[in-house]
C-alpha cells in the first residue's frame, strides 16, 4: 500500500472506499465503503460504512466503523465504535472503545471504558475505568482497576487476574463501583470489590468489598477483612 495514493478530508466531506496509503480526516469525514490503508487518522469525526483494515488506526475525537476492524495498532483519544468484530494487535485508549461483536488481539490498554458485546480474547488487558461484556473475557494477564459503577462480564478466565478499586488520591473522595461476574477462573487471583458466584484458582486472595459465593482453590486461599465468602474449599 506504500504506492497507493493518500486521501485527506478537510472540513466536511465524503469519499469512496478503497486502498490508500494514508487517510487523514480533519473535521468530519465519511468513507462510503470498505477501506484498507497503512494509516487512518481522524482529527474530529469519521464514519466508515464498511470494514476497516489498517496498520495504524488513530482517533482524536470520534470514529465509527460500520463493519469489522483489523489493525496492528489502535490509538484512541476520545470515542470509537465498531459495529462488527475487532482484531487489534495493540490498543491504547484514553476514552471509550465499543465493539458490537467480539474483540481479539494482543495488548489492550484502556483508561476509560471498554464495551464489548461478545467475547474478549487477548493476551493482556490493562484497564482503569469500566468494563462491560456479555461474553467471556479470556487473557493471560488481566489487571482491572475499577473507577465507577456498572462493570459487568459474564465470565473471566486467565493466568494472572487482578481486580482492584481505584485508590483515593483526593481527600474525602471515594470511587464507587464493583465488578460483577458469574465465574472467575485462573492461576493467581487477587480480587477487590468483586461480586461473583464462583472463583476458582491455584492461589486465591479475596480482598475488601468482595461478595463471593464459592471459592475453590488448589494451593492457597486468603480472605481479607470487609469481604464475604459464603463457602471455600480446597480441590
Which features characterize this protein?
single chain; 14-stranded parallel β-sheet; 76% strand; elongated; Cytoplasmic protein
How is this structure best described in words?
This protein is mainly beta. It has a domain of 133 residues. 0% of the residues lie in helices and 76% in strands. The protein is built from no helices and 14 strands. Strands 1, 2, 3, 4, 5, 6, 7, 8, 9, 10, 11, 12, 13 and 14 form a 14-stranded parallel beta sheet that branches. 35% of the residues are buried.
Précis, in short:
With 235 residues, the chain is mainly β. The chain has strands at residues 7-15, 18-31, 35-48, 52-65, 69-82, 86-99, 103-116, 120-121, 124-146, 151-165, 179-191, 194-206, 211-223, 228-234. Strands 1, 2, 3, 4, 5, 6, 7, 8, 9, 10, 11, 12, 13 and 14 form a 14-stranded parallel beta sheet that branches.
Amino acid at each position: 500500500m506504500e504506492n497507493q495514493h493518500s486521501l485527506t478530508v478537510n472540513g466536511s466531506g465524503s469519499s469512496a472506499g478503497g486502498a490508500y496509503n494514508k487517510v487523514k480526516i480533519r473535521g468530519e469525514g465519511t468513507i462510503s465503503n470498505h477501506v484498507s490503508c497503512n494509516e487512518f487518522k481522524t482529527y474530529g469525526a469519521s464514519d466508515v460504512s464498511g470494514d476497516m483494515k489498517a496498520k495504524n488506526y488513530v482517533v482524536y475525537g470520534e470514529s465509527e466503523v460500520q463493519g469489522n476492524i483489523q489493525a496492528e495498532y489502535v490509538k484512541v483519544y476520545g470515542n470509537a465504535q465498531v459495529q462488527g468484530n475487532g482484531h487489534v494487535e495493540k490498543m491504547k485508549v484514553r476514552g471509550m472503545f465499543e465493539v458490537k461483536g467480539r474483540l481479539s488481539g494482543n495488548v489492550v490498554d484502556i483508561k476509560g471504558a471498554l464495551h464489548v458485546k461478545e467475547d474478549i480474547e487477548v493476551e493482556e488487558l490493562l484497564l482503569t475505568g469500566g468494563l462491560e461484556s456479555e461474553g467471556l473475557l479470556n487473557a493471560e494477564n488481566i489487571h482491572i482497576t475499577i473507577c465507577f459503577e456498572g462493570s459487568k462480564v459474564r465470565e473471566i478466565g486467565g493466568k494472572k487476574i487482578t481486580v482492584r478499586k481505584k485508590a483515593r488520591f483526593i481527600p474525602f473522595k471515594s470511587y464507587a463501583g464493583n465488578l460483577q461476574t458469574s465465574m472467575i477462573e485462573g492461576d493467581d487471583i487477587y480480587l477487590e470489590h468483586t461480586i461473583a458466584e464462583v472463583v476458582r484458582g491455584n492461589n486465591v486472595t479475596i480482598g475488601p468489598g468482595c461478595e463471593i459465593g464459592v471459592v475453590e482453590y488448589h494451593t492457597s486461599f486468603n480472605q481479607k477483612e470487609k469481604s464475604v465468602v459464603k463457602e471455600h474449599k480446597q480441590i
